[in-house]
Amino acid sequence: MLIPKEVKTVVEKLAKAGFKAFIVGGCVRDILRKAKPKDWDIATNAKPEQIQKLFPKSFYENKFLTVTVQTQSKKEELKEIEITTYRSEAKYSDKRHPDQVKFARTIEEDLARRDFTVNAIALSLQGKKQEIKDPFSGQNDIKLGLIRAVGDPEKRFSEDALRMMRAVRFFAVLNDSVKWQIEEKTAEAIKNNARLIKEISEERIRDEFMKIIMSEKAAQGIELLRELGLLKYIIPEIEEGCNIGQNKHHIYECYEHYLKSLDYAAKKNFNKYVRVAALFHDIGKPRSKRGNGQDSTFYSHEIIGARMTNQILNRLKFPKKDIEKIVRLVRHHLFYYNPEEVGESSVRRLVRETGPENMEELLQVRMSDRIGSGVPKAEPYKLRHLKYLIDKVSQDPISAKMLKINGKDIMDILKIASGPKVGQIIDILLSHVLLDPKKNKKEFLEKEAKKLGGLSEKELASLSQKAKKEREKIETKKDEMTKKKYWVT
Q1: Which of 118, 184, 363, 386 is buried deepest, with most CB atoms within 10 A?
Q2: What's the sign of the alpha-carbon dihedral 343, 345, 347, 350?
Q3: Cβ count near 144 (within 10 Å)
Q4: What is the rounded distance in angstroms from the CA atom of residue 291 to the CA atom of residue 293?
Q5: What's the CATH fold of domain 145-234?
Q6: Rounded distance, CA 326 to CA 322, Å?
Q7: What is the CATH number of domain 252-394?
Q8: pTM value surpassing 0.85
């Protein structure tokens, strides 16, 4: 087992001072799974004040006996290492936090308070041989792919109800050759205690929900939340889509469509905004449905869905900027586009309403929606053509505004009034800059303007006409390159 030198240094320093120290928790689980740990935790019999004496660059500002040691590592996951004194916990009155945290005498006592067997394993680096403490057979559960509560699952979940969501999160994020599942008695205990999740703060629920959403098995994670009875207490609006049939444009019922869309977004590794919007984009359909069968309608479901999404995300205490972005994606996911019918002005309006910074994500939500509807292609010709038009209308047009000189400057330099001559000189100067952007300097352009001012009316008109043709060629070439980028004609 390859242990980073930063972790070894901390353990060795504790050992030299006469203390016992073990690597514990998720990092040991990941080492045994041959996966890269995301953070490192150490358990010791040293008290917090003794730890701080050994590690001056540390801070201790919690009631859970954890000291955070700062290292000089350049690796993000090793910049801070948490050292916690062996502890045991008393009754959890609020189903969230222990009423009392006490020092424990042994590592075995410390492991007994942990949530799941796969996280209740300790690794000792002291001595010549690495020693594993595994009092609850966590190694075997890792081999079997079982998420099993330590001891009595009913007791574990009544202590901290968030552990039920953590079980689903581990199911979703632990992704290797083993097919992970929640052990039968543990799953049954979650079903029996699901209502306790209401005791947990919205922020903690949000964080676990997003870890599930950002996993490769995001859709399976949401379905497991539903199967275990947790989803109805977290986001009941999603369950409203169960058994709600759609019309001829969809082969799946609403809830299944939500999951299929999210699954595609996860497989394509789209960002958090797209994943949440993919799950929520049609959440307004059950409340807007009129009629049954192939011809049923869902008028204004995107408006209803945007309103519902806003309420859900506010309830779960999402950051304001995240709420605004996701709500906008849900609100505009139903845009209509047909190359023969929709012009540049309509596309400009869509970009303006959605926000140019959100367009790529909006198209990804649309792709997820398409695959979630059962169609074979996520990005057909129509969508590629729209991408081309969005790119085209978003590009800065070739215009006189690009120049470091304007019409008034030319009138002042040549001491002439406004008229065709000023426009002709601007056209010629613009052609110079398009051919060589380095020439877009005020000194150069003023000098050229003076030269052009001395030409005859006929010469100036001829050069202006030639400059316009050059600009048209550049614009055509630019458009052809944009079309080629999206494989459209």
Answers
A1: 118
A2: negative
A3: 15
A4: 7
A5: Hydrophobic Seed Protein (1.10.110)
A6: 6
A7: 1.10.3210
A8: no
Dihedral, CA of residue 302, residue 307, residue 311 and residue 314, to nearest 10: 90
Give residue 130's Cα distance to chain centre: 38
Q: How buried is residue 246: exposed, middle or buried, by Cβ count under 10 Å (0-12/13-18/19+)?
A: buried
Q: What is the mean pLDDT of the chain?
A: 89
| Contact by Cβ (8 Å): 377, 370 | yes
pLDDT tens digits, one per residue of 173-209: 998 778 999 999 999 999 999 999 999 999 999 999 9
Q: Are strands 80-85 and 66-70 parallel, antiparallel or unpaired?
A: antiparallel
Using DSSP's 3-state secondary structure scheme, residue 456 falls into: coil
Q: Do 5-137 and 252-394 show the same overall fold?
A: no
First-to-final CA distance of the chain: 56
Alpha-carbon distance of 69 to 59, in angstroms, equals 7
Alpha-helix runs per DSSP H in 45-91: 48-54
Please tell me the distance from the alpha carbon of residue 20 to that of residue 41, in angstroms, as a whole number: 14
Give me the torsion for CA of 388, 389, 394, 395, rounded to 10°. 60
| Residue range 4-13, pLDDT digits in tens | 999 999 999 9
Calculate Rg over the CA atoms of the chain. 32
pLDDT at 50 over 90: yes
The three-class DSSP label of residue 1 is coil
What does the pLDDT look like over 261-316, one tens digit per residue?
Answer: 999 999 999 999 999 999 999 999 999 999 888 888 888 999 999 999 999 999 99
Does the CA dihedral 375-378-384-387 come out positive or negative? positive
> What 3-state class would DSSP assign to 423?
helix
Query: In terms of C-beta density within 10 A (0-12 exposed, 13-18 middle, 19 or more buried), how is residue 225 classed?
Result: buried
In three-state secondary structure terms, 69 is: strand
3-state secondary structure 274-311: HHHHHHHCCCCHHHHCECCHHHCECCCHHHHHHHHHHH
List of long-range contacts for 291-295, beta carbons under 8 Å, 24+ apart: 292/245, 293/245, 293/247, 294/247, 294/248, 295/247, 295/248
DSSP state of 24: E
- Rounded to an integer, what distance in angstroms lies between the CA atom of residue 392 and that of residue 235? 40
Q: What is the pLDDT of residue 487?
A: 58
Every domain of the chain and the residues it spans: 5-137, 145-234, 252-394, 405-485
336 residue type, one letter: Y
Q: At what angle do helices 420-435 and 442-453 cross, to 10 degrees?
A: 130
